[in-house]
Amino acid sequence: MTRVSLFIKIFLFALFISIVVRYMAVQPYVVSDNAMAPEYQKGDVLLVNRFGGFERDSIIIFRDEKTSRRILRRIVALPEERISVNDGIVSITDKDGYRAIKELPLFGTVILTLPGVGKIDAHEVFVMPDHATQEFYGLIDQRHMIGTPFMRIYPFSRVTYFNN
Fold it and tell me: What tens digit of pLDDT does each residue of 105-146 get?
């Protein structure tokens, strides 16, 4: 009976550890579109670090408030910076609006639907896709961020560790 008891204890401990790791530290994510191609392609399976920090140009996974869908995008502007849209160009400046940090082109119908954002709130970031044909651009509340990808585990031919 002691062998069975020991097996049950080990099994329960392993189950507990796997649940903690799955829901607290690391989470799998399947890329749902080609917005971040060629580095992240539809169908890739990534492991996401839920405790990772972020900065400009970090790749993040977040939950869309409207659809509850998880989305992969790049952070292009940080809290308290300013964003303006003129002639299809997104301009990012420092919080005072003087020093230009970055300028990025917009494509397709996004130009018509994305108004000038102005100053980003202290709890938000601005994200954009890398691939010009995808249209999820916008402000993301940091509370909806899930984490940053640190490893691609599928397809096996493209297993990669990312230094975000």
Answer: 776 555 555 555 688 889 999 998 887 666 667 889 999 999
- For β-strands 45-49 and 26-30, DSSP reports them as antiparallel
CB 44 within 8 A of CB 59: no
For residues 82 and 58, the answer to whether their CB atoms sit within 8 Å is no
Indicate the pTM of the whole model.
0.79
H runs (alpha helix) in the chain: 2-20, 110-113
- Residue 58: closest CA among 38, 73, 41, 39: 73
Q: Strand 89-93's sheet: what is its strand order?
A: 100-105, 89-93, 82-86, 118-119
What CATH superfamily classification does 2-161 receive?
Umud Fragment, subunit A (2.10.109.10)
Ordered by start, the domain boundaries in the chain are 2-161
